[in-house]
Amino acid sequence: MDDDLVIRAQRGDKGAYTILVGGLADRFLSVARRILRDIDLAEDATQQALLAIWQDLPQLRDPARFEAWSYRLLVNACYTEGRKDRRWSPNLRLLPPEQPASDDLSSVVDRDQLERGFRRLSVDQRTVVVLHHYLDLPLDKVAEVLGIPVGTAHSRLHRAMGEWRAALEADARSPIQEVAR
Amino acid sequence: MSAEREFERISRAWLRADGEASADRVLDRVLDLLDTSPQRRTVRPALRSAGMDAYGRTPRDDLARLALVVAAAVAVAIVGINLLTASERDEATESPAVASSPSPAATDLGVFEPARGRIVIWDHGHLEAIDPLDPTSVRVFKPGYIGFGSNVMPAGWSADGSKLALTTEHGDLFVMDQTGALDWVPIEQLPDVGLWNFDEIRTHLDCRRPRPRPFGCASSAWLSPDGTKGLVFESPGQRSLGPGRLYVMDLDDVRASRVIEVEGIEPTRSVSKGGDDSQPAMPVWSPDGTRIAYIWSKEGNLDTPAVGIVDLETGAARELISGWGLITQLAWSPDGSQLLVVAGPGPPLAPGGDLPASLFLVDVDDAEAHEVASGRFAAAAWSPDGSRIAAVDQPGTWEVIVIDADGSGARQVVATLDEVGPAGVVWHPIPAP
I need a surface site. Which of A6, A15, B214, B254 has the fewest CB within 10 A? Predict the structure, then answer.
């Protein structure tokens, strides 16, 4: 990330801000969508995070930490939207149809099963899984974004993957299929 | 390939299967909103334009700091107290630093309305207000974004419930009012910061906690009861010889309106910069604003802390308790007669274990102490009427309990599966209607 852009945006340069977040927005939406499993919630979270970047950038002391800082804003926004989802919107809409799965994947486990299992995880758990397995952030970076110790990030990820697998196994045994949480 | 690795491979492929989405529509909306969403600028830019650095310090401040660091060794033992002001000695001697009565309850708590009468903790980027009588009722409210430290700890309400002090993991300090406005308090301007910020906590406590919490020991009553002042103690390395200094900080103009010198601190040893454990710390206001309790160490070692009380009207200081293992928090009872002390035996710790810490009540007059609950408590707060105590416990995963002040009736109000929880808990002082 270009520190100079960050500094200019900190000083209120909207052009610099536009360039800065223009390079982030698609990735933000993709991350939020994977965490929240709902495109509308994901768009709201992304908007909230991008706006927060503008509003709070003057308080960022170290421009070199912009990326981790901005992802933390996104994660916080996802938590906010996730709570709305949990409290007031029990019926999630499924993500739009996805591209065909790879042969390997479809041959081993059903994609809907993966979806259902993933939805059973808490937003906390989904977040650590997405940051590590989708964004490829190493666990120390995940910990930095989440503001938790590395050991906690590791255990949270381990637990999330374990529960995800357990959910798949339970799903495979159950004749009843749950469409959405 | 193990089943675990195979599942990891499958899940990665699944997560990546639908590619990146276009956020053009979102970006357009955000750019449209910029004009009506001003940047939150705090005192810092203004100070910078006034010739100070990013933290509000002038070159002169730096020289002063340097001179103080060169000085020598801070030490311990309270013998007496002198009161003086930084620039207005007369003003300080004419009136107590903060002897004001608590303000009447705000009729409109604004953004804090959801917190009225509730236990408040910080969790996942939000303040959560939990009804102690119905823990399933959780209200969530969120202050404006606080720096880049989403890990925040509430550090006390004003008496009328209209202001809340918040500290971040990076040691920043904010005061939020009922309009939602968030003022960053540039504590770096002052000679030093005695509010234990998170860096200091790491310095001091990491070695004591096999599994250090991201939060630690910020004062639970940092705000004066009238919400206009804060407390700052000197931190290690800034002054290494002479009396300890407690700064009463006026939050409006962010200056130390009064300095209380704690005389009689013995220069027991030389200390290097950042290495002095003998500082007094964790100052907490009494409910009537006339006294301050604080933690310090008689032996220059945090492993053997003591608790002192300073009377702001008379300047008298006295030791209340000493010889305890490790004290992490103090909280005055609403009637000012007792101190709730979170304390444990301190090191050495069992390998892999967290730090045991119990809740104690100490009578302020005769120092009689008794244990209310044992556990691994990180923080605690009184209910407004003094009949109950809310505490963050960490028996493995963290939880919040509420217990009657006599130690009976403990009940869990928050249970989690997370290993690391909030180290701060506050209870809104205004009861629910």
Answer: A15
Residue B360 half-sphere exposure toward CB, CA atoms < 13 A: 24
Please count the other Cβ atoms lying within 10 Å of the Cβ belonging to residue A27. 17
CA B10, CA A109: separation in Å to the nearest integer?
8
Give the angle B79-B321-B201 at the CA atoms, nearest 5°. Answer: 95
Chain A residue with Cα closest to B12: A133
Torsion over CA: B283, B286, B288, B290 (sign): negative
Containing H/E element for A16? helix A14-22
Could you read off the pLDDT of B6-62 as tens digits, one per residue? Answer: 888 888 888 888 777 788 889 988 888 887 777 765 433 222 223 323 223 333 333
The DSSP result for B155-197, as a single string, is: EEE-TTSSEEEEEETTS-EEEEETT--EEE--GGGSS---S--
By CB atoms closer than 10 A (0-12, 13-18, 19+), residue B163 is: buried
This prediction has a pTM of: 0.53
Q: What pLDDT is recorded for position A150?
A: 78
Residue B432 contacts A where some CB pair is shorter than 8 Å: no
For residue B121, give the DSSP letter.
Answer: E
Cα–Cα distances in angstroms (integers) from residue B72 to residues B127, B242, B270, in the given order: 42, 9, 6
Q: Among partner residues A28, A39, A51, which is closest to B33 by beta-carbon distance? A: A51
Classify the C-alpha dihedral B127-B133-B134-B137 as positive or negative.
negative
Q: Which of residues 22-51 of A touch B (CB under 8 A)?
A: 22, 25-30, 33-34, 39, 42-43, 46-47, 50-51
Encoding tokens for residue B355? 């730090």
**Cβ neighbours for B127, distance < 8 A, ≥ 6 positions apart:** B115, B120, B121, B140, B141, B142, B143, B154
Q: Which two tokens stand for residue B218?
A: 């910020």
ipTM comes to 0.81
Q: Are B147 and B120 in contact (CB under 8 A)?
A: no
Pairs across A and B, CB distance < 8 A: 166
pLDDT digits (tens, 9 = 90+) for A78-91: 877 776 654 333 22
Q: Which helix (H) or strand (E) holds B369?
A: strand B369-373
Q: Which of B16, B37, B54 sits opposite A61 (nearest CB)?
A: B54
Q: Given the DSSP bridges, would you call strands B358-363 and B338-344 parallel, antiparallel or unpaired?
A: antiparallel
Would you state the structure tokens that stand for residue B167, as one six-digit string?
Answer: 């500290």
**Beta partners for residue B360, in sequence order:** B341, B371
* Residue (of A52, A6, A20) closest to B182 by Cα position: A52
Contacts of A102 in chain B (CB under 8 A): 13, 17
pLDDT in tens, B138-166: 777 766 555 434 567 787 888 888 888 87
Which residue of B lies nearest to A57 if distances are taken between CA atoms? B39
Candidates B349, B348, B350, B295; CA nearest to B323 is B295
Averaged confidence pLDDT in chain B: 66
Q: What is the pLDDT of residue B216?
A: 32
State whether B44 and A105 contact (CB < 8 Å): no
Q: How far apart are CA B176 and CA B424, in angstroms?
A: 16
Residue B283 tokens read as 């100052």
Cβ contact (<8 Å) for B10 and A30? no
